[in-house]
Amino acid sequence: MDLALETTDLSRSFGTFRAVDGVGVRVEPGSFYGFLGPNGAGKSTTIKMLTGLLAPTSGRMRVLGLDPCLPEQALEMKRRIGVVPEDLALLENLTAREYLTFVGRMHSMAAGLLSERIDELLALLSLEGDEAKLTLEYSHGMKKKLALAAALLPDPDLLFLDEPFEGVDAVASRTIRRILTAFVERGSTVFLTSHVLEIVERVCDQVGIIVGGKLVEQTSLAELGGGGSLEHRFLEVVGSDGAAAEGLSWLAEDGP
Amino acid sequence: MSSGHVRAILWVRWRLLLRRTLRAGKLSNTVCAILVVLGALACLGSGLLSLVLGYEILHEGRSFHALMVWGVLTGLFLLFWLLGLVMDLQRAESMSFRHLLHLPVPVGWVFVYNYLGSLVSASIAFFLPAMVGLALALSIAKGPRMLLVFPLAAAFLLMVTALTHQLRGWVARLMEDPRRGRNVIVLLTIVFVLLLQAPNLVNLARIGSGPEPGERVEHGESGSAAPAEAREVRSRLEADGTATAVARFVPFAWLAYGVHSVWERRWLHVAGCFVGMLTIATWSLRRAWRTTRAGVLGLDGPTRRGRGAGAGRSQASWLDRNLPFADEREAAIARAALRSLIRAPEAKLAFLSPLIVVSMFGFLLWSRPDRESMAAFAPLMTMGAALVGQMGVGQLSNNTFGLDRDGFRSYLLSPVPRHRILRGKNLALAPVCLGIGLVALGGLWLLLPLGPFHVLGACLQLGSVYLISCLGGNLASILFPMRLRENSLRAHGARLKPILSQVFMVLLMPVTLVPLLLPAGADFLMGLRGWELCGLWFLLLHGLLLAAVVFLYARSIRRQGDLLQSREQGVLEVLTQE
Question: Which of B319, B335, B341, B425 best tests the A interface by mutation, with the highest count of A CBs <10 A?
């Protein structure tokens, strides 16, 4: 069976800086893959390359058995994936419903089905009261929810989510978790980055940890935890800083 | 605010300026440096020139001359100041309150800092030396009493800058609601443009219409020069009196009137002008402060409520419809892009400016009594009508993804062949481009004797111009993309190379349109020879040219799509660069 996602020696440099260095990710179909790493580790750059937003400097990628670097295969791949990119991809002068209609039509969805799904998504993500606002009037959290709705709309086989829970309220966060869990349960795949380790621990079954552009760990969550918490293992792999753990020198003194 | 705060703010501004300069590239910095040196020389020159010329003109002149000279100077200053203000309205404050409010800095000091920051402008840099030079010239020519012009000029500048600062605060408050704010920008800009153009229009209309028939007879038949001279003196005195009276009651002319009063030694009037200008300035700054405080500290009521779900549904259904002869994805792109453009204030302004040009040109043509004699050039003028439509969309068509900014990712992530994206984007501009062209053409049809064949031919010509411009625009958008600032058509952080390349593409456009002048040339020659069917030939030739252009478009758009596909990640990088 083909892997949902596979990269071999995937690298990306910006000038002399190597943001992603020989990453080899393997994601089984129907899995919930958590891609973890500290800030600036190369998570978003990897997602950008996998979704065709950024060309790799070297290496190979297969997304749903297709190569995003080949123009004809890239379009077929985009037909089958949904993406919530780091900086979102909203057209700021459209309303939420207009934007979703636009995305649906780009995927050649039938009008009736499109309208039905938009209603459902807006209601589920608590956006229906604000659907007539322009997306530029939305808060960051609302934008994230709208981007997620757009990614889910064409019912993709593989979802790429870059920090989907960032800035989202607790109620919406729980709704999103439920949606994504149901999405995976029926055989689709999710590739997610998040700094909220509790959420990753709760929903993901596979994790990969990237540090300084290199993939340092890739395993099932059960194996990675090894009985302890994901946070503990993550800090161990990433290498927590001793001085930072001690805290600030002046906080040890008496307060005001 | 302590001196430490001031130092910190100045340091931040310096670092931002330095960073921007370093990022701009060598060529851009060299050009900037040359412009700064030239600007400094111009400022110095304006001071010296007004000193010398002011002395030459005013040392033997009358007080009325001083009124006129200062009137012209303040008028010019106001003109440039207003132009700068329109641009400034689209820019953020020199130090945004949002960046400082969470820090221990008093709001009042940030207000003062921003007000002083608003004084740093090219208009003041150029006109302040001119005012100083002129005031010095007057003091040398007419004695030390004219030194009173200095406080008058200071009060005038304070009044104008305070008034506009108040306006800026009011606009900023309005713009808290982004949708309403963007409309305010459009409205204010149009009002300014129309206000500034009104005197020009009146003047041109008067020149165009020539002297009144009665006047001509009177001048021609009077024979003797003496009564005419007396009449002239009388009318000049009347005009002097009217101008002085008007200046007395118009606050923006109080500087000129104040200078006139100092010359005439009417001290009460001088004091009145001075106190009047200071009062307006104080009132304006007070209002500006209150508006800013209310806006910053959130003392006003809630902003407009969001519209209901029903409105959203009906808005979106517009995007659901197809377009004739277009793939459904092209239709979706065209409709979404058009809706985005119509909602963007910068695009609205771009669309409205050719309409203003069309109305001005129409007004001028209408006011010319000899317009019938221009009939021979009418087929040539139809090209102008087609170009004016292009003028409105030129900037948008040559940088078709510039306004999408981060939204360009939506196109990139979509499974749509890239040539269809380009076609959709081109279709989005069609209603505007062809609509404005048709309005201009309709105006020509009403004002000049154009036959039906010529009108139909010109309609076909509109199509050809539009398609050629689309091809050129697509190429420029793919090769030299630029991220546009929000609420503005100005490029954000672009290097000089893409800007110059875009300019080159704009200059190249008329050359690519030269073949479309062939029917107009043929029509002109046939008209000279007295051929009666020249209109029909005009139509046929334009039909042939349009067919050729459609063929060219259909052949090229796929290749342009491939080009976009190969460069789309680079385009994205430019468009999403903050």
Answer: B319
